[in-house]
Amino acid sequence: MKFALFGSRIIDDAVIRINNSGHNDVNRIVGISPFTLNCSFTESNIINQSEIAEKNAYRKKITLWDVNKNILGQLKNSKCSYVCLDMWCAINPIWECMLEDGRVFRVTLTDTVKTGKEVIKKAIEAFAGTRIIKEQEINPLSWTDSKIESEITAFADSFTKAIGNKQPVFLDVKRAFQYDQDGEIVNDNDYRHISMLNGFVDKCSSIFLQKVKCTLIPSSDFILGGEMYKTFDGLYYSEEYYEYIDKCLRTIEKNGGFSGGEENTLLKEYEDKLQDKVDLMMLPETFKSMEASIKGKKIILIGGSKKYAERLESEYKQKVAFSIPYDSACAEGKMCSELAAVLENKDEYLCLITHLKQNDDMLEILWDNGSGFCPLNACFYSSHKPVNLENFKGRYFDVFHNSVLSLSEGTKIMACGLASSVELDVSSQKVFEVILAVWNQNSLKIGKNFRSAKMKMILNDGSKCSIGDNCSFAENCRFAFCNFGSTSVGNDCMFSNGIVVHAGDGHAIFDTSSERRINYNKIEAPSKFEIKLDDHIWVGYEAFILAGTHIGTGCILGGRSLANKKYPNNCILAGNPARVIKEDVAWTRDPFTQNILETDVLDSAYMQMTER
Q1: Residue 2 to residues 15, 233, 343, Cα–Cα distance (Å)
Q2: Given 216, 309, 390, 446, which is the most exposed site by the fewest CB atoms within 10 A?
Q3: Which residues contact 573 (CB under 8 A, 6 or more apart)?
Q4: DSSP letter at 487?
Q5: What is the 8-class DSSP label of residue 335?
Q6: How far apart are CA 90 and CA 33, in angstroms?
Q7: Shortest CA distance to 175 belongs to which of 234, 228, 240, 93?
Q8: 601 band by pLDDT with thresholds 50, 70 and 90
Q9: Which residues of 189-210 are buried (b: 16+ CB within 10 A; e: fewer)?
Q10: SS3 label, residue 480
Q11: What CA–CA distance (Å, rounded) separates 226 from 595?
Q12: What is the average per-residue pLDDT within 96-101?
């Protein structure tokens, strides 16, 4: 199997792991910016090998190709059927020279080029027969979107012509936010920088794939840096990742591409293997959190591999009664039937969930739908040290299946648990000290033009919250979401100071005569787990909004009122508990308008009569 390479050490490290591939007979062009090919010079003999002061033979060869503009020629002449590439080297800085005759010369600004810059300048001038009148170091990361598209388009055109009939294989790479250090998951705390690099490479990759038809090796957000992560500037991955790329390339070479969903099968196989590794790496921290509750109990293992169970028994002396595969556990009926056999003696067992994933109901099925195992002292899941994203802007993902997309600064996000999603599409100038504490399997989505000061949101397990566009929150608002609660806030809502939104009680209340729980029964009272505020609602100073509240469009909730039920639209609500004190009202943020017809800032949808 033979592949030519143009890209970063990521694809290089993956390909050279292919046993007996003959890759040493094929060109490996690694570390060269795709943008150095976009210049006035074509293949030539500007400089010879003896003039480049570099002891490493490979780096010397690549620099020589880059300076002499031989990169495309090397790809063209490669005796292979496939060219593997990625876009990571698009982040590399470029040295650009302007010559007196208007021609432009570019080369990747590597350490070798920095050391030999004066020698290279003289060689360029001698070859061109004119002098360099201007030179600059270019950082592509500072380019505008239009400039990036222009440069990628030019590269894509040159690349396509150079490779001819060879098939391009594209690896959509990302840099990981965590890495393996002596068997422990360690956070790379430079979150913002990693996100910025990933975002730039994603942008370049997307444009390139629109221009060039490639066989795409699917990417995953579920990646872990390898033990040499720091040594190679974050471009080193777990062995599971390299094995995955190896299998993909072998499949492509054997079948001429992917067919019948092979790529998805290989991706799932990789993710399952890495999941087993991550679960085992989290086990010491997990066992520490549950040790005091075990007290001789047997463990029901949910999602864990055979190796995980063996380690629990051999290293931690804990008996695993039986295991339930994660996919089976996500099926409500299957989970409950598996656990039904032990319910009569459930005090002898506890459940251990080795991992959680987004977009399933694992926790709710286990805790809330008759399985018999509640979270306090009977159910545990893998633990990790909290990840703190402060003033974070960009996209974050981790091996705990958390993801964050934040389009501006101003928030502090504490990812304390597993499998949660946060999306913040907010105004960068008007968000101050917003603290989000996120636990397990949460979902939070905040829309455009969100404005807030000193706000705190706590999302307990399984809770969901969405806030629409153009909502504003004054100081010291607090949202607390209890397990599996759901809260939605519509568009154009306005919250005053000190408001509390509390989606659930958080603790059990029983009727002593019937011995039944009366505040946590989704079957009999599902609305008690929901808060719904429709569009254009004004919430007054220190109001309190409880679970079970539904306020209609255009309402005003008076200061220090307590809302706890369903209210119609276009009303003024006040009191404890709140009641309708005025119907057929509308309001606007404009403090000066005396006649509602004089303003054009109030949507007609908000000027309605109260539905009776």
Answers
A1: 9, 27, 58
A2: 390
A3: 551, 555, 556, 557, 558, 561, 563, 567, 579, 580, 581
A4: E
A5: H
A6: 5
A7: 234
A8: low
A9: eebbebbbbbebbbbbbebbbe
A10: strand
A11: 66
A12: 96
Q: Are 224 and 179 in contact (CB under 8 A)?
A: yes
* Mean pLDDT of the residues in the chain: 90
Q: Which residue has the higher pLDDT, 408 or 376?
A: 408
Look-up of token digits 């109260």: 610
Q: How far apart are CA 527 and CA 49, in angstroms?
A: 76
d(CA 107, CA 113): 8
| Residue carrying structure tokens 């306005």 | 494
pLDDT of residue 369: 60
Question: What is the SS3 assignment for 476?
Answer: coil
DSSP reduced 3-state for 257: coil
Residue pair 535/606 in contact by the 8 Å Cβ criterion: yes
Element (H, E) at 381: strand 379-381
Token pair 């422990």 is found at: 184
Locate tokens 């890209």: which residue? Answer: 7
* Separation CA 377–CA 558 (nearest Å): 42
Cα dihedral sign, 495-522-370-378: positive
Distance CA 392, CA 412 (A): 7
**Which residue in 104, 164, 165 sits closest to 133, CA to CA?**
104
Share of the chain above pLDDT 90, in %: 67
Q: Which residues contact 355 (CB under 8 A, 6 or more apart)?
A: 275, 278, 279, 282, 303, 326, 381, 382, 400, 401, 418, 419
Structure tokens at 544: 């309190």
Region of poorest pLDDT, from 324-328, 378-382, 524-528? 524-528
The torsion defined by the Cα of 421, 423, 428 and 431, in degrees rounded to 10, comes to -60
The confidence band for 435, taking pLDDT boundaries of 50, 70 and 90, is confident
Helix (H, G, I), strand (E, B) or coil at 181: strand
How far apart are the C-alpha atoms of 234 and 177, rounded to whole Å?
A: 9
Phi and psi of 188, rounded to 5°? -85, 110
Confidence of residue 20 (pLDDT cuts 50, 70, 90): low
Q: How far apart are CA 349 and CA 375, in angstroms?
A: 13
Residue 179 phi, psi dihedral angles, 5° rounding: -145, 165
Look up residue 555 and give its amino acid.
C
Residue 587: what pLDDT?
93
Q: What is the pLDDT of residue 26?
A: 65
Nearest to 266 by CA among 256, 276, 251: 251
Tens of pLDDT, residue by residue over 237-256, are: 999 999 999 899 989 989 99
Q: 80 near 2, Cβ under 8 Å?
A: yes
Q: How far apart are CA 561 and CA 543, in angstroms?
A: 5
